[in-house]
Input
Amino acid sequence: MSSPTSSLTEAVRGILGRTLPGGAAPADDEVPLRDLGLTSLRMVRVVVALREELGADLPDDLLRPETFHSVRTLVSAVRAATDGT
Output
């Protein structure tokens, strides 16, 4: 049985896999997403997918490049945004 953390990580990887060029989700949670082709337009697509698929509405203070640095930082931001709900 998977933990909520691993389920969230897998969900975020799935969104990234559908958003990044090549269609492959990053296997390493520390790889810079920019190195994998994450652009500002793709960041917007990720934000929309997080809202639609996970109900995670990232607050304005989390909409910064550091949040989208890696899978780990993005999962951390999603967790912070959804813990209050």
